[in-house]
Write a structure and sequence with these properties.
The complex is a heterodimer. Chain A is built from 13 helices and no strands. By secondary structure, chain A is mostly helical. In chain A, helix 6 packs antiparallel against helix 11. Chain B has 15 helices and 5 strands. In chain B, helix 13 packs antiparallel against helix 14. Chain B is globular and about 75 Å long. The chains are: A mainly alpha, B mainly alpha.
Chain lengths: 314, 370
């Protein structure tokens, strides 16, 4: 039963979706603070390469993950400085980050002796449990058959959801994203809240990147993450800025990535390139149907998203 | 306003000196950051940079290649510049360029071998512009009619166009695929009558078209009533409405022109150096690099030309770096860093930063009041 197409597809979807879960969650937290960071692709790639490098040098997986998160946070700090302190265009700054991060990651991957490119990872994240309950029908592989980081992602989603909607700090965060002037008047340090959450978002993007190079395809190649960072930006909208929805949206995406193979096993031939379009088409349709005009507010889009806050201009 | 020990005050209208100095400093700062990374990884930055300059300008052939690389960047730069000027965040230059290439190659292939150049060449080039504008309209129409945010839609359309291009050549037996390519799928060459003549090594007439488009864009934005209204909308949509400007129509026209310029870039590649829609040569991030060009040119279409040449030189120098065991990604890293500094530099163009508070006492009083 665990060899059935459904189970294999769902299992692969969770694996392929996990890096996107981290990145989407990071972007949700960032956008909830009212900052749009289009640099996810760059932060993920830099996380992927630095995490791979740290593990490659030390053989320590945990260190790789920590380094990847720090690198993602460091990169996002550049964006935080531009968009929060300097208050220049968040859109252009984010794209700058995406381009710089892509270049930096491929640069790091191809320098040094031996260069990282083409190397397999020294350590990789393996399934936590083998045998026993991991062999149970359906729930075995789908619930108990994953590596540590998948469980970490579930935990992070749960924590983020609780934090956003059931804690005072989460309420403060949402207030900063909705109406920074009122939050400021209520004594909230808008700048500090925004910096912290942009950098948490960067750290999660870095972690998502590391999942590619340490778990999903444990090796280093140029541009190993496809368009995952850009997909994460689209998924924030499909998930309407909510963590649990991001989890399932990312898995849906993972399934779409796996569909090509699934169709092959079923003897149906659907061109891979056309399947690859689906997520992007869905995002556009969702954008037009769900978020046009005033509906964006109902959906959960932070009102101050993308707008710099200046105390003097309130 | 105070940021730590620094006092920040709006500059009002910045002087020409400042507006020139800041972009130059952006490039310089990016080179310093690049040098740091190169030195950290055991390379000699000076050797790398001299190699790059040599690869980009060292011989007449390399100058020609630099201008070949600059041609599409000038157009995607113009596309971003005119859109951003009006706060239309068209970040879909990439997809519009690819769609331009698809349309241009499609027109060339449809016309076939018998068509005279006087028909084929304009048809190929214009089809590209139409393709780019149509692709932009998918984002422009919802933006104008429903208020749909164009940032995400243009971004997503890039990846749809990329997959469509790959599908047409690598994933199917469409008319765009060369039926004679048996080894590996390739784009079908367009007829010779649809190709732009070369005049300086591989450099073709496309560079003149690109520069002409930049000049026309500069004239349209800077010197016409239409351009004035566009700039008013960019400054304040409310002001524009009170002044009787039909804002949606302005947004639509700017959006479509922006898409057409990016589409033209794709068409000039097909009609120029490539001669076919070749997925492996078109997936270069030219649309995103156009955003760097526009930002560094401070959205001035005329300044886009020299900045486009600079970015073309950088792109052109990448492969040469591999011969001295330096990754060609150095170029992307430098370009990204240039954009980071250029966008941060906008702050220093808009504001004056001093260590001491402004000397005029009244200003201090106002600050306390605020």
């Amino acid at each position: 039963m665990n060899d059935s197409t459904f189970v294999l597809t769902a299992f692969a979807a969770i694996g392929l979706g996990t890096p996107i879960v981290f990145a989407t969650l990071g972007e949700i937290i960032t956008e909830r603070a009212g900052v749009l960071n289009l640099g996810v692709q760059g932060m993920m790639l830099v996380g992927a390469v630095t995490g791979f490098w740290a593990t490659f040098r030390t053989g320590n997986l945990l260190l790789g993950v920590v380094v990847a998160m720090l690198a993602g946070a460091a990169l996002s700090a550049i964006h935080a400085f531009s968009s929060i302190t300097l208050r220049v265009s968040q859109i252009v700054s984010g794209i700058a980050l995406a381009l710089f991060g892509t270049g930096l990651a491929n640069f790091i991957g191809r320098t040094g002796t031996p260069a990282l490119v083409g190397q397999p990872s020294r350590e990789t994240f393996e399934p936590l449990l083998t045998g026993g309950i991991a062999n149970w029908p359906i729930v075995g592989p789908l619930i108990f058959g994953h590596d540590t980081l998948v469980y970490v992602s579930w935990l992070v989603v749960a924590v983020a959801s609780y934090y956003l909607f059931h804690t005072k700090a989460g309420l403060t965060l949402r207030a900063v994203g909705e109406d920074p002037a009122s939050a400021d008047a209520a004594g909230v340090e808008v700048t500090r809240v925004r910096y912290i959450h942009v950098m948490v978002g960067g750290a999660l993007a870095g972690l998502g990147g590391a999942y590619f190079s340490l778990a999903l395809v444990p090796s280093w190649q140029d541009d190993p993450i496809g368009a995952a960072g850009w997909i994460a930006i689209a998924l924030v909208i499909l998930a309407s800025w909510r963590p649990w929805r991001a989890l399932f949206a990312a898995y849906l995406f993972g399934a779409a990535g796996r569909l090509n193979f699934t169709f092959q096993t079923l003897g149906v031939s659907v061109p891979a390139n056309l399947l690859a379009m689906i997520p992007f088409i869905l995002a556009i349709v969702a954008m037009i149907v769900l978020t046009s005009g005033k509906r964006a507010r109902l959906l959960g889009a932070p009102a101050a998203l993308g707008i710099p806050y200046s105390r003097e201009q309130r | 306003m105070r940021v730590g020990r620094w006092h920040v005050e709006p500059r009002g209208l910045a002087s020409t000196r400042v507006t020139l100095l800041v972009p130059l400093l952006s490039v310089f700062s990016a080179l310093v950051v690049g040098a740091l990374f190169l030195a950290l990884t055991g390379n000699n930055p000076w050797n790398v940079y001299t190699k790059m300059i040599d690869a980009a300008f060292g011989s007449s052939r390399s100058v020609s290649e630099t201008l070949v690389s600059a041609t599409p960047l000038i157009l995607t730069g113009v596309a971003a510049a005119i859109a951003f000027k009006m706060l239309v965040w068209n970040i879909g230059g990439e997809g519009q360029l690819l769609m331009g290439a698809i349309f241009a190659a499609g027109a060339g292939i449809a016309l076939g071998d018998g068509t005279p150049a006087i028909v084929a060449l304009p048809a190929v080039v214009l089809a590209g512009a139409v393709g780019g504008a149509l692709w932009a309209s998918i984002s422009a129409v919802p933006r104008v009619l429903l208020g749909t945010n164009e940032i995400i839609t243009t971004l997503m359309l890039n990846f749809i166009a990329l997959n469509l291009m790959n599908y047409l050549v690598l994933g199917s037996f469409s008319p765009w695929r060369d039926p004679n390519a048996t080894q590996f799928p390739q784009g079908r060459p367009i007829p010779a009558a649809g190709r732009l003549p070369e005049f300086f090594h591989r450099l073709d007439w496309g560079i003149f078209i690109a520069v002409a488009v930049a000049i026309v864009a500069w004239f349209l934005v800077g010197k016409t009533r239409w351009g004035f209204e566009v700039r008013v909308v960019g400054d304040s949509a409310d002001t524009a409405r009170y002044a009787g400007i039909t804002v949606p129509r302005k947004i639509m026209s700017v959006f479509l022109l922006s898409g057409a310029a990016a589409g033209l870039a794709g068409a000039l590649l097909v009609a120029g150096v490539l001669g076919k829609m070749d997925p492996r040569s078109l997936d270069l991030g030219l649309g995103f690099t156009g955003i760097i060009v526009a930002a560094l040119a401070r959205l001035n279409p005329l300044a886009v030309v020299p900045v486009g040449v600079l970015m073309g030189a950088l792109n052109n120098s990448g492969p040469a770096l591999q011969s001295i065991q330096v990754p060609s990604a150095t170029v992307t890293m430098l370009q990204g860093a240039i954009l980071i500094f250029a966008v941060a530099g906008e702050f220093f163009i808009a504001n004056r930063v001093r260590r001491r508070p402004p000397a005029i006492p009244t200003a201090t009083v106002q600050e306390d009041a605020a």
